Amino acid sequence: MAAAVERRLAEFRAARGSAAASPRPAEPPGEAAAAEAAAAGPGGGVQARPGGAAALVWARPLLLKVLLWVVLLALFAELELGLPYFVLSLLYWMYAGTRGPAERRRGELSAYSVFNPGCVAIAGTLTAEQLERELHYRPAAGR
Questions:
Q1: CB-CB contact of 53 with 43 (8 Å)
Q2: Full-prediction pTM beyond 0.85?
Q3: How far is CA 103 from CA 21, 44, 98, 110, in A?
Q4: Coil, strand, or helix at residue 54?
C-alpha cells in the first residue's frame, strides 16, 4: 500500500512540475506523531503539516469565514439589521448545505427509495405494512 501511495505522490509531483522535491523517507507512526507535536509547540499558534511546512492556525479557511461572519453580524447589529442578516445567513447555509444528485457518492442510497436502484429502502424506513401491523397490534412477521 505504501508503494501505491508513493507512486501516486510521484505522479502528483510530476504533474505539478516540482520534480526537484525529494520524497520523504517513511517514518514509524509513533515518531511522526512525536515530531509533529514537538514542531507545533505549546500555544505557539503554528501547526506542523505532513509535508514539513508549518501553517498558522489563523490561515484556516473555515475559521476565517466564521470570523468574517461574526464581524459582519456585529456590523449589521450596530446598524439594527442583525436579525435579517442572521436569518438570511441561515437560509444561505441551508442552500449551500444541500447537495445535488450529481454530488452523490457511488453506492450512496437516497432517502427516497424510488430513486434507488430496485427501489431499495434505507435502514430504518417505516413502510406502510409495518405501520399497519403496529396500528392493529399484530406481531411482526419474523417473530
A1: no
A2: no
A3: 34, 39, 10, 12
A4: strand
